[in-house]
Design goal:
single chain, alpha+beta, Phosphorylase Kinase, domain 1, Transferase(Phosphotransferase), domain 1, Rossmann fold, six-stranded mixed β-sheet, five-stranded antiparallel β-sheet, 14 strands
Length: 487
């Protein structure tokens, strides 16, 4: 145990036994401890000096204990608070399970699972808002999944930090987003919060909830891969791409609700979190036009076999000419949606820096959204063809597929897995099928700064799977060839 933890243990000697440090974000150091009096595990969150230099520890304690009054099944309560050598801390129950962030590292969620979490978090917000407490930092890291339910942690922390600032400290602290404090995380901040509008109210939490829902369903928040400053600018002025352009199986009512949560003007969002809960209670929220229920079992099995066979054909021939075939001429592709996708894909690649030396790339297994078996076969074939095509790019080393898959399975985040493989770029994506339609979404990520260098979405049909897969592989290979090493 380090000297610091030893001193902290001495401070808590009569109540808590510190077991280990769990690791926190920029906002706190997180410690797992045993409560000797009640024989249970707790989490102690200790704010660092970078946050607390301008805070009154005593006032922080008073403010954070207001959150202790929040007793709700979807809220992790505050048990106690205090300070250690002027560093404020608060204590919460230890929740057995995983964070939503950890869950999403395995890929986008099924719609039913995402809606269940969406509703649980909305219930927590409705209860807290009804008692005058705004969270101000709703994000996947603060949503924990346990015993089949989602619970929200760190309620009241942002208000406690804000209210306990000593007079004149605002200039020194600023918005504090740079250190990731609970006053706001740029990727999830409402426009009014990003602008430091003093009139910011509970509707900022509804905006953040919309971003979390968007990310659960698509695998990334709306403006992923940008610098904090660019993220804040996007929150103020840029409209996210509609959910229905990213997934087939999202119903129109669900997409409409999430996009309403993401309205730039607070007055255009749902008025309360209770309104969100009521909207999610509508059975139609789970019914997508992309998956009619009337398809006969025999017809469905036959269609699935056809899609599976098409995926195998694609996997066997696409790599043979992907880097040598010329781009399709305008008007020759099977549908205009794919032409648009190719145009979107080629622009970032063309603008990228020229290669400055050997690059190493890991191609992680593409994920089948919704667990569709035939989409899964297509994803497996596409993963293999991507690796083969990228390996043909001059000056590029591709990590073994077997090793990449094994490392990705055993390591937390994609970026961590890529660093374990000693690569500079990673390729990841999803494949989705809705009857005859297929959608492939792929992105190229720089491991150095965990930012998206290029991304593309490609649409086609099961009858046109070969052309769809070829378009995808060629665009990714082109992006790799045109992208230099991360700076």
């Amino acid at each position: 145990m380090t000297d610091f933890l030893a001193e902290l243990q001495a401070h808590f000697a009569d109540r808590y036994t510190i077991e280990r440090e769990l690791g926190g974000g920029g906002m706190s150091r997180v410690l797992l401890a045993k409560d000797a009096r009640l024989d249970r595990r707790v989490v102690i969150k200790l704010l660092p000096p970078s946050v607390t230099a301008t805070l009154s520890a005593e006032r922080f304690k008073r403010e954070i204990m207001l959150a202790a009054a929040l007793q709700h099944p979807n809220i992790v309560p505050v048990l106690s608070a205090g300070d250690f050598e002027t560093l404020p801390y608060f204590v919460m129950p230890f929740i057995e399970g995983e964070s939503l962030r950890t869950r999403m590292q395995r890929g986008p969620l099924a719609v039913r699972e995402a809606v269940s979490i969406f509703k649980d978090v909305a219930r927590a917000l409705a209860f807290a808002h009804g008692r005058g407490i705004i969270h101000r930092d709703i994000k996947p890291d603060n949503v924990l999944l346990a015993a089949g339910a989602a619970v929200v942690t760190d309620f009241g922390v942002a208000k406690a930090i804000s209210a306990s600032r000593q007079s004149g400290s605002q200039a020194a602290v600023g918005t504090m987003t740079g250190v990731g404090t609970s006053l706001g995380t740029p990727a999830y901040m409402a426009p009014e919060q990003a602008a430091a509008d003093p009139a910011t109210d509970h509707r900022a939490d509804i905006y953040a909830l919309g971003i979390v829902a968007y990310e659960m369903l698509t695998g990334a928040p709306p403006f992923h891969g940008r610098t904090p400053q660019a993220l804040l600018a996007a929150q103020l002025s840029e409209k996210p791409a509609p959910l229905t352009t990213r997934r087939y199986d999202v119903s129109v009512p669900l997409s409409t609700l999430i996009m309403q949560c993401l309205e730039k003007e607070p007055g255009k969002r749902p008025k309360t979190a209770n309104d969100v809960v009521r909207a999610l209670d509508d059975p139609g929220i789970l019914v997508s036009d992309a998956f009619p229920a009337a398809e006969a079992p025999k017809q469905r099995r036959r269609r699935m076999m056809e899609v599976g066979a098409g995926a195998l054909v694609v996997a066997s021939v696409a790599a043979a000419w992907v880097l040598t075939a010329p781009p399709p001429s305008p008007g020759t592709t099977a549908d205009s949606g794919r032409q648009d996708s190719l145009r979107r894909a080629s622009a970032p690649a063309a603008a990228a820096a020229a290669s400055t030396g050997p690059r190493a790339v890991a191609v992680f297994p593409l994920v089948s959204i919704g667990g569709d078996a035939q989409a899964g076969q297509a994803a497996e074939g596409l993963t293999s063809e991507l690796a083969s095509a990228i390996a043909r790019v001059s000056g590029v080393r591709v990590a073994s597929q077997t090793t990449s898959a094994a490392v990705r399975q055993g390591v937390g985040s994609p970026a961590e897995a890529a660093r374990a493989l000693n690569v500079t770029f990673l390729v990841e994506g999803t494949v989705q099928r809705a009857r005859e339609r297929l959608r492939v979404s792929v992105r190229l990520v720089s491991v150095t700064n965990d930012s998206t260098v290029w991304s593309g979405t490609f649409d086609g049909t099961t009858n046109d799977a070969l052309a769809l897969q070829d378009s995808t592989v060629r665009a990714v290979a082109t992006a790799i060839a045109a992208t230099g090493r991360p700076r």
